[in-house]
Design goal:
1 helix, rod-shaped, alpha+beta
Length: about 180
């Protein structure tokens, strides 16, 4: 009769440990790459979401509420958008707007010292942020023009939204309604 084996031989244990020693680093390496790609994907999704929110807020604010673009001195008698038939935009960092009922508000970039990210703020009767602190905004600027005297102003906005090294550039045009 044969003897019954109740344990592993030394060579079986060495082979098993060797195989595990090769497989475990490969699994951790693949897991790390997947985890890192998920962080990049989440950052890109947040950048896109915040950038689209800014675009929608600026577009809605200007197309439905704004009557004219005014100067930094808040003189409501002067519309600062020039009449240009072939626009060559000159960008400025802050936009001052008179709304349909004669109230003034502004849109601009609130610059903060590191590590606090830059955010877009709307200042009227109260301060409203168009972004949260998850993303940082840069290169935020406005330009405006009119194609005819007495016509509606067209506002061009550009900005860059970034987070964790991922960034998207945005540029949009909005025509103001005339009241």
């Amino acid at each position: 009769m044969g003897t019954v084996r109740k344990s592993f031989t030394f060579i079986e244990l060495v082979v098993t440990i060797g195989i595990v020693a090769f497989i475990v680093p490969a699994i951790f390496g693949v897991s790390y790459v997947i985890f890192r790609q998920q962080i990049i994907l989440n950052s890109m999704m947040e950048v896109k979401r915040q950038g689209d929110n800014i675009a929608q807020a600026v577009k809605t604010s200007l197309s439905t509420n704004a009557r004219k673009i005014i100067g930094a001195d808040l003189n409501n008698d002067v519309d600062i958008c020039p009449v240009i038939t072939t626009p060559t935009p000159t960008f400025f960092p802050k936009l001052y707007v008179e709304d349909s009922v004669g109230n003034n508000y502004s849109l601009g970039l609130e610059t903060n010292p590191e590590p606090t990210p830059n955010r877009i703020a709307s200042l009227g009767a109260s301060l409203t942020y168009l972004t949260n602190q998850d993303v940082s905004i840069s290169n935020f600027a406005f330009s405006c023009y009119k194609s005819t005297l007495g016509g509606a102003s067209v506002v061009t906005t550009k900005y860059t939204v970034s987070k964790n090294g991922q960034s998207l550039d945005y540029r949009l045009k909005v025509r103001l309604n005339t009241y």
